[in-house]
Amino acid sequence: MWSALLRRGGRGAGGLRGLVSGGPPWSQVVSEAEKIVGYPTSFMSLRCLLSDELSNIAMQVRKLVGTKHPLLDTARGFVYDSRNNLQMRGLVVLLISKAAGPSTAELSFQHSMVSGIYSSQRSLAEITELIHTAFLVHRGIVNIGELKSCDGPLKDMQFGNKMAVLSGDFLLANACTSLAQLQNTKVVELISSAIGDLVQGIYYENSKSSEENCLTDDIGISTWKEQVFLSHSALLAKSCQAAMELAKHSAEIQDMAFQYGKHMAMSHKLHSDLQPFVKESDTMAFSLNSAPAVLHQEFLGREAWIKQIRELREAIKAGKGVTSAIDLCRGHGNRALAALERFPPSEARAALANIIYAVTRFP
Predict the structure, then answer these.
(1) From CA 170, how far away is CA 53, in angstroms rounded?
(2) Which of 151, 152, 172, 182 has CB 3.0 to 4.6 Å from 134, enough for a Cys bridge?
C-alpha cells in the first residue's frame, strides 16, 4: 500500500504524499515548523549565549574582522543564513518529539510538557545544535601549511585558528555537560557515539581532500553513503532516536525516528550537492566528492573520468550523475516518509513531511 502511494504521489486519509515536484519553499517550511514547536529554534541555548565565557570569545573573534579567516563566515552564517537554516537539526528533534507525543509507558512526567514536548527533549534539541555548531566551528580551522600570501598575514590566521579551537571546544564541553544532566545512560551513549561518528566522518573528508582541486579516490556510491552518514546523518538520526528514548517510546518507534533522521539528513546533503548542477549558474563551487560527481565517475569509468576532469561540471550535467543523484535524494526522502507513517497524524508530522518535500525539490 505504501509503495503504491509513493508511486502515485497521492495522499491517503491521514497519509503522506509521495515525492512530487512543487510544495512550499524551504523558508516557509521552517517558519511554519517553528510555530508548531512553540518558538524559533536557535543554534544554541540562551543560557550559553549569555555566558561570560562565550561573551569573551565573541570579543576576541571581533579582532578577526577584516581578515580572511573562515571563522568569520561561520559566525555570520549563524546569524544570517536563514535560507539553509543551520539550526535545522534541533528543529527536527523538536518536531519528531511532538509528532510521537507522550508514551503510554511513561505517565509520571507529562506535566513538564510544553507545546506537546518534554523539557528534556527541548534540552536534547539544544544539545544537538551545540554539537553541530561546535563541529562547524572546528571545520573552519585553516591548514597553515597550505596558506598563500594572498590569504593575509600569518598571525591573523594563527589567531583565528586559536579562536576556532577555543570556541568549538567550549560549545562541545557545554553540550556534554548538558547531556550528562539528562541523566539517561542510553541517551548519553547514543549522542556520544554520534560525536564519534562525526569525528570519523570528518577525518575521512579531510584525508580525501588534502588539496582543494585534487582528484577523488576511486570510491563508489555505497562508500560515499557510508562516509556521508558519519559526517552528516548520524547526529540527527541518533538525536531523533534519543528524543524517543527520553519519552520512553518503544524500540520500534525509536527505530522509526532514527530512520527519519538518517534519511532526511541524507536527502538534505544530496540536495546541497546537487545545487551547482541544477541551478543556472556557472560560478557555484562544487566538490569532487559530491554525489553527482561520484555517481558520474561510476557511470563513466575511472580512466575516462580523469580525462574529463577539467570539463567536469558540464560533463556531469550532460551525464547520468545529476539525475541519479536526484533519484537517490528522493529515494532517501521516501524512506523518511515511510518512517513517518508510524507516527499519528498531526501538525508536527505534517511539518516533518514538508521538510522532506523541501529538500527533495529541484527546479
Answers:
(1) 8
(2) 172
Q: In the numeric block, which cell numbers belong to residue 355? A: 521538510
The answer to whether 86 and 136 have CB atoms below 8 angstroms apart is yes
- Between CA 11 and CA 247 the distance in angstroms is 29
- φ/ψ of 113, rounded to 5, equals -80, 140
Q: For the segment 123-170, what is each residue's pLDDT rounded down to a tens digit?
A: 999 899 889 888 888 877 766 666 666 666 667 777 777 777 877 888
Rounded distance between C-alpha atoms, residue 119 and residue 97, angstroms: 11
213: closest CA among 287, 108, 118, 133?
287
- Please give the model's pTM, rounded to 2 decimal places: 0.79
Nearest to 94 by CA among 34, 16, 47, 136: 34
Return d(Cα 262, Cα 320) in angstroms, integer: 25
Residue 140 grid cell: 573552519
Q: b/e string for 217-233 if b means 16 or more Cβ within 10 A?
A: eebebeebbebbbbbbb
Are 299 and 315 in contact by the 8 Å Cβ rule? The answer is no
Question: Exposed e or buried b for every residue in 288-297, given b needs 16+ CB within 10 A?
Answer: bbbbbbbbbb
Residue pair 14/345 in contact (Cβ under 8 Å)? The answer is yes
